[in-house]
Amino acid sequence: MQQLNERIQNEGLNLGRGILKVDSFLNHQVDPALMLAVGQTLARQFDDLPITKVLTAEISGITPAVMTALELGVPVVYARKQKPITMPKQVYRQMAPSHTKGHNVELLVSPEFLGADDTVLIIDDFLATGNTISALIQICQQAQATVLGVGTVIEKRFEGGRERLESIGLRVRSAAIIEKMTASEIILAKDSSS
After folding, report:
1. How crowded is the C-beta side of 29, counted as CA atoms within 13 Å?
2. Residues 79/106, Cβ–Cβ less than 8 Å
3. Is it true that the peptide bond before 186 is cis, omega within 30 degrees of 0?
4. Do the Cβ atoms of 66 and 123 come closer than 8 Å?
5. Helix, strand, coil share (%) of the chain residues, nearest 5
6. In the chain, how many H helices and how many E strands?
7. What is the pTM of this model?
8. Which residues lie below 8 Å from residue 40, measured CB to CB, with a gap of 6+?
9. Cα angle vertex 194, ends 62, 97, to 5°?
10. Which single residue of 9, 10, 112, 155 has CA 20 to 30 Å from 94?
11. In terms of DSSP bridges, do strands 146-156 and 171-181 run parallel, antiparallel, or are they unpaired?
């Protein structure tokens, strides 16, 4: 996706340790027009599948998940990181390491909103090692829901998450793919549609 690639090139900042700062349009300030275009792009990659829910993790995954779900005409469920009093006592839960926070976070989903009849598309802001997405897959397994695919805004291909997810039979698509990050440059794949 050319517009996203340009924003990454112009505004992305490599903070080291595999962390890419894109706070100006995705992770702190959100560019709604760009995220709508990302959602449309991701939805086209999965519109042949019988998806009933889009699942993501709070907070940076919510905007691209909502935009994708809007295009697909399905609801969004997001895994919470803290349990509110409105959630039932029994919830689906899984721990996931947070690369940017430097520790594990707990992801929680209410059984009211995810069940055995659901076919799920997982959408997230980044795909790196696949740890957070794997935790969301495990939550779907607890709910007996079926995961049909994974879509991400930005994939850091060099961290191996795609291979991990494809090895379990999932379709993985990203709006932008980073092949390599060095101190001086961010090298993007020419074709990010696969």
Report:
1. 5
2. no
3. no
4. no
5. 30, 35, 35
6. 5, 10
7. 0.95
8. 67, 71
9. 45
10. 155
11. parallel
**pLDDT tens for each residue of 117-141:** 999 999 999 999 999 999 999 999 9
**Residue 48 amino acid letter:** D
| CA dist., res. 71 & res. 101, Å (int) | 31
pLDDT of residue 192: 59
Q: Write down the domain spans for the chain.
A: 2-188
Separation between Cα atoms, residue 134 and residue 11, nearest integer Å:
29
pLDDT tens by residue, 65-90? 999 999 999 999 999 999 998 999 99
Architecture in CATH for domain 2-188: 3-Layer(aba) Sandwich (3.40)
The two three-digit tokens of residue 128, written as one number: 């790196």
Tokens of 120: 């799920």
